[in-house]
Amino acid sequence: MEAIQTYLPTRVASNLDLAANAFGALLDRGLLRRMRFTWFERDAAYVIGLSALWPFATLFPAQYLFGGGDLPRELWDGLDPIMQDAILAWIPASWDFESWPDRLGALLPDESWEALITASNLLFAALVLATLLRRERASRIRIMIALIVTTLFAKAAVSFIQSRSGFTFDWATDGALDGILIGSARWPP
User: Fold this and answer.
1) 138 in the same domain as 86
2) Closest CA relative to residue 79, chosen from 96, 98, 103, 58
3) Are 119 and 179 in contact (CB under 8 A)?
4) Is the domain of 65 the same as that of 96?
5) Are residues 28 and 46 in the same domain?
6) Closest CA to 117 of 105, 102, 131, 100
7) Over the stretch 110-157, which tens digit does the pLDDT of each residue have?
8) Domain extent at residue 113
9) What 8-state DSSP symbol labels residue 131?
């Protein structure tokens, strides 16, 4: 189809179009379609799509592997000062709301927080994917390994591209690796 389009004067066929059409054909009639209907329920398309996007959502350089940044602090700092004052006036002074992040962070060392955040996010992504797996046929361990390998490969590739000094695996700290092991050990549910 793409080769025929080269004869149209207003159409420019490209290799990307050819690859997209070939991938679409694989999804529609090929091995990937058979695997999808063997492993997943019929209405799992949105969950599969969401799970396929998760490795790319973790690419943003965050403090911890698979972490999304310091969202509560960003939300608080993004509030209008009048709104912050209203919230602080509503909360009892004995709660000492402004020191919560510091006190919470002091409960565990950084390596333990990283392991906890990595394991929690990995387990959440795997459980979302598992919601529509067919229990009797699905190869849960293969799916979990594919999710982890795809995510770590994407993270290493983006780290290599972004890093001028070649630190491709600088995110692979002890806490991150422990988190991957903890999150994986809880699988399959």
Assistant:
1) yes
2) 98
3) yes
4) yes
5) no
6) 105
7) 788 888 888 888 888 888 887 777 766 667 778 888 888 988 888 888
8) 40-185
9) T
